[in-house]
């Protein structure tokens, strides 16, 4: 069987030749192979003339030319409409899935890089003839040698071939000749079936080549070296990250320690100030003075808790921090000091002072009125009687207090603890006692003058 030639090759033109170029080439070849021009070799000239004439007829018809361009490879391989009559001369890649196809990883002809460089060059050449715009398409990446740079050669090569898609049409895998269809429905069914066969053949070829790429990449020493480099780089980054994190933790711990030291230093300063204050109070006041003032306050009226001169343990503790003006007791010196500075406390003190002033004026006015009203002897007798009764009451109270002063003083000193005695030394505790004593004395004086009004 004679070998089938491509129509473009018969006419000697490119696949994108125009109608004028086809006509010009046909006339030239027709004159050359016309039987009348070859009387010595009529049969051979006639056969060649028919081939030229057939090629010209197909390529000058737009529909015939389009169909021929689509099925050109199938026609040349003799597989058009047969499905199993064509001879696929594509490279068999399965023979390269074996380490016996190369010897070592050197730069010699039998080495790993030389063998597979030729394999991929062959695959690229097979696909290159099926590209429409050969000059505009980028070249296939080179496989490179053992010393090729990964970023410039090795990386781009595997990136391209790992997602390889063949440009072959695989029209020779078609089973039906659509020109033999009886109607449009049948032709459409034939086209759909042929498309399935083409896609299946193309998919199979793509998977074969991608599998070969994965096989080669796994054994490529350049890829292994690059992976090791990446691992070392990753380990270095991780090490630096851990060091930075540890340094941040140490810095945070250092700041925390400095903050704690500053806090303890501030507390120490406060303790020193408190000790100095207590020392000054100890120098200015003695425990006996504070105790005497407190006892005198109890003797001149009822106790802080409302009982007549009876002092319990709670009174001994809270009387040091008791505000007479506001009738409040406090559990800490700081709270008592803040209370004395408050607006409400100052207002209460001012009210009490005003009341005492008014009472003193009323008492003086009452004395003046009584002096003017004394006209009769009966009134003088009543005043004398009242004076005598008042004197007796005062004498009795003074005698009672004097007789029990020693015992009560000893008993009160025994009840006070060291902590309570220390609290009584403070200056702020003396002022409420003095105010209380003054107030009680004023009340006693007023109470003694009240009977004269009668």
UniProtKB/TrEMBL annotation:
Ranges of Basic residues composition bias in the record: 415-427
Assigned keywords, A-Z: Coiled coil, Metal-binding, Zinc, Zinc-finger
Coiled-coil zones: 187-262
Keyword Phosphoprotein assigned: no
Region: Disordered, residue numbers: 359-454
Record-annotated J domain positions: 6-72
Biased composition, class Basic and acidic residues, residue ranges: 377-395
Cited Pfam families: DnaJ, zf-C2H2_jaz, ZUO1-like_ZHD
GO cellular component terms, A-Z: cytoplasm
Entry GO MF terms: nucleic acid binding; zinc ion binding
Name of the protein this chain belongs to: DnaJ homolog subfamily C member 21
């Amino acid at each position: 069987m004679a070998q089938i030639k491509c129509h473009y090759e018969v006419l000697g033109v490119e696949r994108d030749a125009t109608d004028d170029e086809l006509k010009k080439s046909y006339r030239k070849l027709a004159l050359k192979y016309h039987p009348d021009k070859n009387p010595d070799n009529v049969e051979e000239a006639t056969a060649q003339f028919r081939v030229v004439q057939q090629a010209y007829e197909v390529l000058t018809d737009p529909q015939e030319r389009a169909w021929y361009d689509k099925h050109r490879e199938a026609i040349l391989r003799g597989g058009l409409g047969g499905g199993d009559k064509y001879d696929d001369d594509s490279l068999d890649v399965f023979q390269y899935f074996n380490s016996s196809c190369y010897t070592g990883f050197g730069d010699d002809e039998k080495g790993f890089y030389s063998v597979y460089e030729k394999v991929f060059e062959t695959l690229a050449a097979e696909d290159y003839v099926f590209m429409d715009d050969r000059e505009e398409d980028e070249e296939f990446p080179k496989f490179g040698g053992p010393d090729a740079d990964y970023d410039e050669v090795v990386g781009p090569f595997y990136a391209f071939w790992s997602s390889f898609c063949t440009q072959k049409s695989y029209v020779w895998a078609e089973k039906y000749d659509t020109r033999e269809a009886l109607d449009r429905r049948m032709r459409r069914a034939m086209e759909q079936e042929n498309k399935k066969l083409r896609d299946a053949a193309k998919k199979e070829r793509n998977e074969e080549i991608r599998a070969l790429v994965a096989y080669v990449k796994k054994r490529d020493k350049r890829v292994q070296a690059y992976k090791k480099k990446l691992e070392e780089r990753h380990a270095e980054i991780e090490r630096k990250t851990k060091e930075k994190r540890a340094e941040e933790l140490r810095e945070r711990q250092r700041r925390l320690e400095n903050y704690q030291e500053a806090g303890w230093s501030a507390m120490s300063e406060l303790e020193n100030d408190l000790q100095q204050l207590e020392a000054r109070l100890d120098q200015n006041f003695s425990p006996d003075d504070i105790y005497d003032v407190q006892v005198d306050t109890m003797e001149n009226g009822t106790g802080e808790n409302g009982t007549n001169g009876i002092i319990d343990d709670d009174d001994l503790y809270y009387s040091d921090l008791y505000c007479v003006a506001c009738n409040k007791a406090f559990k800490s010196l700081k709270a008592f000091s803040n209370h004395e500075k408050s607006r409400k406390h100052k207002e209460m003190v001012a009210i009490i002072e005003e009341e005492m002033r008014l009472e003193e004026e009323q008492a003086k006015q009452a004395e003046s009125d009584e002096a003017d009203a004394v006209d009769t002897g009966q009134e003088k007798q009543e005043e004398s009687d009242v004076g005598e009764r008042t004197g007796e009451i005062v004498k009795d109270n003074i005698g009672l207090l004097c007789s029990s002063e020693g015992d009560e003083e000893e008993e009160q000193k025994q009840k006070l603890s060291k902590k309570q005695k220390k609290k009584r030394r403070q200056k702020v505790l003396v002022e409420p006692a003095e105010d209380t004593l003054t107030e009680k004395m004023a009340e006693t004086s007023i109470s003694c003058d009240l009977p004269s009004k009668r």
